[in-house]
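G., before I forget:
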Amino acid sequence: MATLFEKIIARQIPATIVYEDDETLAFRDIHPAAPVHILVVPKKPIENITAASAEDINLLGKCLLVCRTVAEMEGLTDYRVVTNNGAGVGQSVFHLHFHVLGGRSFMWPPG
Ligand code: AMP
């Protein structure tokens, strides 16, 4: 069954898309945890980092550079990039995604 993010990629459900190329999509998180909260996803349906394979190496790097691109588009110089890998650490959508968060200060380590 298609995940929520596959449906967003396929334009079956709406999202506020801020960036797209042939391999990735970026859209605003529906429940923002910061003034800027964008999700960067590969169009390829990879569940998470654990499920990625060696052939995904360029795609994973591409996703990180897209995180930088959207941060720059939002005027951010300082920002956090997070991926929750597994339900035990908060992954709720099982399509790999990178949260790009900025516009406020953050604690380290995260709670
Ligand atoms: P995670 O918990 O790391 O799997 O992150 C999933 C994220 O998807 C959460 O931050 C949700 O707020 C976000 N989310 C859920 N539904 C939507 C949606 N329809 N459009 C945009 N973001 C969503």
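Residues 61 and 67 are 10 Å apart (CA to CA). The chain has one domain: 4-102.

More on Monday.
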